[in-house]
Every structure is written in C-alpha cells, then in structure tokens.
Amino acid sequence: MDSVPVSLSQFARPESRPKIFTITGEGGVGKTSLACLFPNPVVIRIEDGVTTAMDNVICSPVITSSDQLFECINALATEEHDRKTVIFDSITQANVLFEKEVIASDKERAPASINQALGGFNAGNSAVSEIHGRLREWAGKLSTVKNMHVVFIAHAEDMKVDLPDADPYTRYTLRLNKKSVSHYTDNVDCVAFVKLSRVLKTGTKKDGPKKALGDGSRIITCHSAPAQVSKNRFGIKVDLPFTENVNPFAEYLKIDKTGVISYDPQYDYMDPSLQTLNP
What we know:
It contains 4 helices and 12 strands. By secondary structure, it is an alpha/beta fold. It has a single domain, classed as 3-Layer(aba) Sandwich (Rossmann fold).
C-alpha cells in the first residue's frame, strides 16, 4: 500500500471537537443523571436505567441485541436530528449481550460460559472485545460525522492489582471482561468515577468493627489515582463536587464548529460482515 506524502504545511493546532467520556461508579450513584446533563442528549438504552428523564432527553427502546445497538448508531448517523450527545447506558449490560451472542454463535461446542466459548484459551473474551472495539469505533465515527459528544456509562467493580514494583492492592475498574476495558479508558477524553463521600468510623470493642458513614453527598474523580481507573485531558487535578442538575464538565463541552456535519457516504455503517460472530 502506497503511503501518502506528508508535508509540514499540513501541521496545525488541534481544533475543538466533540468529547468522548466514560462515566463509571457503583450502582445508584447518579451516573445516568450526570450523563443526561450533557447537551441535548439521546440515550441508547441497553439497560432500562432511565425512568424519568429531563425534558430535553430522548431514549431508544431497550436494546436486546448487538444488531439493534448498531442499528441505533446507524440511524443517528444517517438521519437528521438535533441531538448533540449520545449516551450508551450501559456498556456493562452491552457486555452481557455480547457474551450471550458469542456463546450462542458457538453451536458446535455449546459452551456453558464465555471462558469455554470458541475453544477456550480466552478466544471468547477476545471475540467480545472485538465487538466492544467495533462499538467504540462506530461511536467515534458518529461523533465526527454528526458533531456529537459520546458518553459511555459503565458499572464499577473492584480488581486486584499486582505490580512488579509495589505491593498488591485493590482498585475500582469497569465491570467488563479485562480485554474490553481499554476500549473505553485509553482513547477517551475523560474517565469519570462517581462515588459517595465516606467517613470511616473507628471501631471499638464495644461498637464492633469500623463502619463507613456518609450523608449521601457524592464526588467525581477524573484525575489519575491508584484507587480507581480515572483520567482526563482537561487538566483537572482535583475531585469535582456532584451537584444536582449541574454538569461540572460544561465548560469543556463547547465546540467551535457549528451546524451538523453531513453523513459520510464512503463509510459503510452497516457492513454485514462486521456483524459476524462466528470464529
């Protein structure tokens, strides 16, 4: 394949563009509520987590297959609309769908779990990761052609970290199979971890062991920290307060471009070959 010559005349300052977020945390901390504060959102419901939405929020039907999920992205990419943010709620539930489909595609072996699918040796998890990679790619393309912010919502779980230069410790990560996490943490602008503010009450012989106490207030961590997977490209270095009906990222969501970028006919959104799950 011939390479295209690159000239310094093509170098320029980066333009403002839509942002891609992953919002994670334990159940019930307000991940979806925070995402719905992004500009003019549409929620692709992979789980039925939106019950009473704000006036400016519209929602898809609850997705029950990966085909439906990609059809939703295709519709947003090819039809006219006024949406400025697409929310995937949640990629954790998408992972459940993808695993079921990979297992079902292995009819010859009829595996009992994803670890046994496609002959084992992590082949099933690799197949699931490929679908997550396709979702991330299509979401990124949608962001470009329709000038939309993207928000992936993920539930959190703890994992053991065993580094060669430190003692083992536990941190929060996305509740996905390990091979799929990087699609939503590496090439994104922000991984925001929403958590309850906690105070540990020292245990005594009379009162029993330590207890975690809180008043229900929440904070958002989006800077690098050992306790959870989190990051940002905005220079934020402190925890942000979680305030009802206030988006702490609003100042970073302004886009210089105006209008809607037209659909790119050279990009085949619904290439049937991408939907094949067979090994």
